[in-house]
Design a protein that fits this description.
Strand content: under 5%
Order of helices and strands: HHH
Radius of gyration: 27 Å
Shape: elongated
Number of helices: 3
Oligomer: single chain
Length: about 70
């Protein structure tokens, strides 16, 4: 009986962990899109937030320019 006691203490957590309920569908870490997260960050008072805002502005300008050039090509 005494030799089974250490095994019982080692196996009990494994059995209990295996019986724990699991979610069938993983929950997303966030429901915001990447652009929404970046915009929220740019508007925050965190260090470097203004840099994120400028990067978003430059990215938006580049996207607009590419779309304009693409429309001229067709």
């Amino acid at each position: 009986m005494t030799s089974r006691l250490p095994c019982l203490f080692l196996l009990a957590p494994l059995v209990l962990t295996g019986c724990a309920g699991h979610s069938s569908t993983p929950k997303p870490a966030s429901t915001l899109t990447e652009a929404q997260r970046d915009t929220a960050l740019a508007r925050s008072s965190l260090p470097g937030a203004s840099t994120v805002g400028r990067a978003l502005d430059v990215s938006g300008q580049a996207s607009t320019r590419v779309a304009r050039e693409d429309s001229l090509a067709h």
